[in-house]
Write a structure and sequence with these properties.
The protein is α/β, with parallel strands linked by helices. It has eleven helices and six strands. The chain has a single domain, classed as Rossmann fold (3-Layer(aba) Sandwich). The relative contact order is 0.17.
C-alpha cells in the first residue's frame, strides 16, 4: 500500500492540488465531487462520470483505494479520501457499493455538503461490512429478486454485474480489476451519526441484480430515513449509464 495521500485519478491527474475553499461553507456554485469506488478500490470505475462532471465546471476526483492490500481497512481508506480532499470546500462524497462504509468515516473528519450513496452498502454506526450482509437480509433479497426476474440465483459476474455494461467497456476494465482483501470487511465503521448539515441521498439502479432495487429502497428508509432515487442501470451504473448518473449529481 502506498501511504501517500496524493492519490492519482483515472485520468492521471494528481489530487494534491489543494485550495483553501474549506474556509467557507460553500464555494459558490463550484463543487468538488469525490468519488469513492466499491470493492477492489479501482478509481477506473468512475472514468465515464468524471469528464461529465468536469465539463459542467466542477472538480471531480476519483480516489483509488488499495482494495487488495491485506493491511488496509476502512481507516486507511478514509485517510486516503481525506487526503485527496485536502482543503477543498463544497465537497460531495459519492460512494459506490462497499464505498458506502468509507463515506461516513470521511464525513466525520472533513466538512462535506452532501453524501450520495450509489447502489451502496449503507452502514450503521459500528457495523462491519462483513456483518452487513446478514444484518440487512441481503442474501434472501437477492435470491428472491432472481426468482422473480427469471435469472439464476447462483452468483455469476456477468449476470449480476455486467448484464447491462457494454462489452467494450467491460473489456477495457479487465486490467483494473483486483480482489478485495478481508481487512475492510472486518473493519468497524466507527462513526457516531450522519453529519447534520449535509444533504444525504441514495441512488438505486432499477436493474441492479446484486443489490435489488426494493432491497435498496428498504435499506435507505431503515438506515437513513429517506426514499432512494431510482435511476436506470444495474449495479455498475457509472459504467452503464454515466450520463444519467452525472445529471443526477449535477442536479443536487
Amino acid at each position: 500500500m502506498n501511504p501517500s495521500a496524493d492519490a492519482i485519478g483515472p485520468t492521471g491527474d494528481r489530487t494534491d492540488d489543494r485550495t483553501d475553499e474549506r474556509t467557507s461553507d460553500r464555494a459558490g456554485d463550484h463543487r468538488t465531487f469525490v468519488l469513492i469506488p466499491g470493492a477492489g478500490g479501482t478509481a477506473w470505475y468512475w472514468h465515464r462520470v468524471v469528464p461529465l462532471l468536469r465539463a459542467a465546471g466542477h472538480e471531480a476526483i476519483a480516489v483509488d483505494l488499495p482494495g487488495d492490500d491485506p493491511a488496509a481497512g476502512l481507516p486507511e481508506y478514509a485517510r486516503l479520501v481525506e487526503g485527496a480532499i485536502g482543503r477543498r470546500g463544497n465537497v460531495v462524497l459519492v460512494a459506490m457499493s462497499l464505498g458506502g462504509f468509507t463515506a461516513p468515516l470521511v464525513a466525520a473528519k472533513v466538512p462535506v455538503s452532501a453524501i450520495v450513496f450509489v447502489n451502496a452498502m449503507i452502514p450503521r454506526p459500528g457495523e462491519t461490512p462483513g456483518a452487513w450482509w446478514d444484518d440487512t437480509g441481503w442474501s434472501e433479497a437477492r435470491v428472491a429478486a432472481a426468482e422473480r426476474g427469471g435469472y439464476s440465483p447462483e452468483f455469476d459476474l456477468s449476470a449480476y454485474f455486467l448484464h447491462d455494461v457494454a462489452p467494450d467497456v467491460a473489456a477495457a476494465g479487465e486490467p483494473y480489476q483486483r480482489p478485495e482483501a478481508d481487512a475492510a470487511f472486518a473493519s468497524a465503521c466507527d462513526f457516531d451519526r450522519w453529519p447534520p448539515d449535509a444533504t444525504i441521498r441514495a441512488v438505486a439502479g432499477a436493474d441492479d441484480r446484486f443489490f435489488p432495487v426494493a432491497f435498496q429502497q428498504a435499506l435507505a428508509r431503515d438506515r437513513l430515513g429517506i426514499e432512494a432515487d431510482v435511476l436506470p442501470g444495474g449495479h455498475l451504473i457509472a459504467l452503464a449509464h454515466p450520463a444519467e448518473l452525472a445529471d443526477y449529481l449535477l442536479a443536487l
